[in-house]
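Please fill in the sequence for the structure shown.

STRUCTURE ENCODING:
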């Protein structure tokens, strides 16, 4: 890992190919380092990074690659399993990916001789989001352009299937609400499903399209955020099904919304990568101005480092 002052990026990691997706492990893994995965055209890399706030003898940040997995097709999404543990004997690395061939792959590794994967098939169009059950890690939820949300067990069998009214863009499974699932659709509707009754129990409306990304706040289960059109939108689900706050932020349409993992008022948005004016921005609900911004193309890894450690 090295500093790179010329592009306003804090640190960069040299990669042999394009990187399409980056995902920190949101669960406790039993190690002082933070697990990170990134995927490219035909690979997934698992590594650890440690910040100077965590280890006194580290200057800035320390990165180490643990294993590279051959994938064979472009990686579009990555989700970590809560079963991942680095302090067990042997260690357990478990994650799943969505790919350009419309399949989900479930990887399991001990970082030694055991490196297995299982293919989950059923979606008939591109998969836009996937997530593990955050409590036990025994199920995976996915949403797709095929207008479905599907729930799978680890054997690849579908245990639930929800028909949507438009492409599914995001799916969230909150650790404090493990019997509920949040699904965001491109038509601007966000629904919460009761997984025991297998039916929708609450819906939110953005009143604008296309809705490209939504996220359920980890630190406050009543807060939901999303980006639709050029705007970010925030809901308090105890008050209304319509946004309590929204603001235009990206000239060429917004692409991604993510809450901070430790601060319920802090979140990030991105515009579309490749656009001339596309930016990554950090926002605070208590401040009217954008707190920090830079070009999307330069901060794919760094935005993850920043959101994780704030």
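FILLED IN BY: designer on duty
SEQUENCE:
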């Amino acid at each position: 890992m090295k500093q790179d002052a010329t592009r306003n990026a804090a640190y960069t990691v040299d990669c042999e190919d394009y990187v399409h997706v980056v995902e920190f492990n949101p669960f406790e893994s039993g190690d002082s380092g933070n697990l990170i995965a990134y995927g490219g055209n035909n690979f997934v890399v698992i590594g650890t990074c440690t910040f100077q706030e965590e280890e006194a003898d580290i200057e800035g940040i320390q990165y180490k690659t643990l294993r590279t997995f051959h994938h064979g097709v472009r990686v579009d999404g990555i989700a970590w399993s809560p079963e991942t543990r680095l302090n067990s004997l042997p260690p357990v690395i478990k994650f799943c990916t969505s790919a350009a061939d419309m399949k989900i792959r479930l990887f399991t590794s001990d970082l030694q001789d055991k490196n297995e994967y299982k293919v989950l098939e059923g979606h008939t169009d591109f998969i836009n989001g996937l997530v593990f059950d955050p409590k036990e890690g025994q199920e995976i939820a996915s949403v797709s352009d095929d207008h479905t949300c599907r729930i799978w067990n680890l054997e690849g069998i579908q245990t639930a299937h929800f028909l949507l009214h438009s492409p599914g863009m995001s799916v969230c499974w909150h650790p404090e609400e493990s019997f509920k699932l949040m699904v965001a659709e491109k038509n601007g509707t966000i629904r919460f499903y009761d997984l025991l009754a297998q039916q929708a129990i609450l819906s939110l409306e953005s009143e604008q399209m296309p809705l490209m990304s939504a996220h359920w706040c980890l630190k406050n289960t009543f807060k939901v955020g999303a980006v639709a059109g050029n705007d970010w939108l925030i809901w308090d689900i105890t008050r209304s099904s319509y946004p309590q706050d929204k603001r235009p932020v990206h000239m060429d349409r917004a692409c991604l919304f993510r809450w901070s993992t430790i601060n319920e008022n802090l979140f990030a948005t991105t515009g579309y990568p490749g656009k001339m004016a596309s930016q990554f921005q950090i926002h605070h609900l208590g401040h009217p101005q954008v707190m920090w911004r830079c070009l999307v193309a330069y901060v794919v890894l760094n935005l993850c480092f920043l959101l994780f450690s704030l």
